[in-house]
Design a protein that fits this description.
Length: 243
């Protein structure tokens, strides 16, 4: 497969957790050691890791930077980090703590000129647009609120400013293991061929990954399917060996 597989580590209180449809009340703790989990991915050949600071998303400022630093200093993984990046200071501290890419979502809706400035200042290789959708609209503030903007509109706004990477999570499918919204991602990748549309939400099996690969999607985030054993580390290792 050509599609890049990016395992997810979602963090609350320094622990690896998964939420169901973004609901903080529906959480499952999978590990108390995110560093150990990150190392296990690196050991099989994974190159990029998706880290979400769920405490930070709720608090509107990063809250698990110590965990980020530990992962960054204990592995050579390319870390993309999101959750509460809503100010210059927050962005700077996340990158200084070891993230190579910062995922910025709410700020792109609430202060789009600021997001444009970050794209220009840090470059599109280091700034990822988090355009997560709930009932057709972009969700913000840890998915606790919905904006009036749809995904196509927000991506299109920043495409002209050099945006190259967007993560789009279909929140209705996140953590449900029911398969991703194939039509949504096919449409976005067709409409924005110059942008890497990262699939997120609903991945349930290797068959999902193969279908996304056949559709020409370039990257996909996998979380709960790994923790629940639907996709094993051995499965991922074999994919990486066959690239």
């Amino acid at each position: 497969m050509n599609i890049e597989i990016i395992p997810a580590i979602d963090i609350i209180g320094g622990q690896c957790v998964r939420l169901t449809q973004g609901d903080y009340a529906q959480r499952t703790v999978y590990s108390s050691d995110p560093v150990e989990i990150a190392r296990s991915y690196e050991a099989i050949g994974i190159r990029r890791l998706h880290v979400v600071d769920l405490d930070g998303a709720k608090a509107a400022a990063p809250r698990n930077l110590d965990t980020l630093r530990k992962i960054a200093t204990s592995t050579r993984l390319d870390i993309q980090y999101g959750g509460g990046i809503k100010s210059d200071d927050a962005l700077k501290t996340v990158l200084e703590a070891g993230a190579n890419r910062a995922i910025c979502g709410s700020i792109a809706i609430t202060a789009p000129e600021e997001f444009e400035r970050w794209l220009a200042a840090y470059g599109p290789d280091h700034i990822i647009l988090g355009a997560d959708t709930k009932a057709g609209r972009v969700a913000i503030n840890g998915w606790q609120e919905s904006s009036q903007t749809d995904v196509q509109t927000i991506i299109g706004r920043f495409a002209v400013h050099g945006l190259r990477q967007t993560i789009c999570t279909d929140i209705s499918r996140d953590g449900m293991l029911g398969g991703p919204n194939f039509d949504l991602y096919a449409t976005l990748q067709r409409d924005f061929p110059a942008i890497d549309i990262t699939v997120s939400g609903g991945i349930s099996s290797m068959d999902d990954l193969r279908q996304l690969d056949r559709m020409g999607l370039r990257s996909v985030i996998v979380g709960k399917a790994i923790y629940e054993g639907r996709i094993t580390l051995k499965d991922l290792e074999q994919c990486l060996q066959n690239e």
